[in-house]
Amino acid sequence: MTNDTLAQRCGAIELLLLDVDGVLTDGGIIYGDDGREWKVFHVRDGSGLKIWHLAGKRSAVISGRSSRVVDVRAAELGVSFVLQGAADKRPAYQRVLTEMEMRSEQVCYIGDDVPDLPILHNCGLAVAVADACPEVRTAAHYVTRVPGGRGAVRETIELVLRCQDRWPSF
User: Fold this and answer.
1) pLDDT tens sequence across 86-127
2) What is the 3-state secondary structure (H, E, C) of the chain?
């Protein structure tokens, strides 16, 4: 994809839609002896989401799995819409578009695996994390330099906001 085309796609983005496992995390799932689930989130992804919201943008999460810690992290970061347990992400995506009153060309989706393909094929800016499966990297308009759970969300936020001349000067 040419830089001009990527910049045009970035220019229309108002909603950042994220997968969780493999995007906001490195894809690992840790279970304690008590059965509780643990996830590790990268601080730069969190600070990137704060910057995204300060720019007046919206965010949402669609996950095939359900985990209480995702609700906690999303609330902490101001993510306005969280939909978990979405085994089929296509109807979940339609729900997000309807409830958030967005058009598909306004959505940047970041994914890493095959269940993400229906959204990646139907959004304005399809992003794959660096360690995504081959099918997802092929479907993407942009592939991050860093893997999921290691700042890929922040990298994408900075890309979009810089294309929109909305990245703050620090």
Assistant:
1) 999 999 999 999 999 999 999 999 999 999 999 999 999 999
2) CCHHHHHHHHHCCCEEEECCCCCCCCCCCEECCCCCEECCCCHHHHHHHHHHHHCCCEEEEECCCCCHHHHHHHHHHCCCEEECCCCCHHHHHHHHHHHCCCCHHHEEEEECCHHHHHHHCCCCEEEECCCCCHHHHHHCCEECCCCCCCCHHHHHHHHHHHHCCCCCCC
Residue 54 in tokens: 């300060």
Cα gap 91→97, rounded to integer Å: 10
Q: How far apart are CA 67 and CA 35, in angstroms?
A: 12
Residue reference for tokens 């929109």: 164
Residue type, 107: V
**What predicted TM-score, i.e. pTM, was given to this entire model?**
0.95
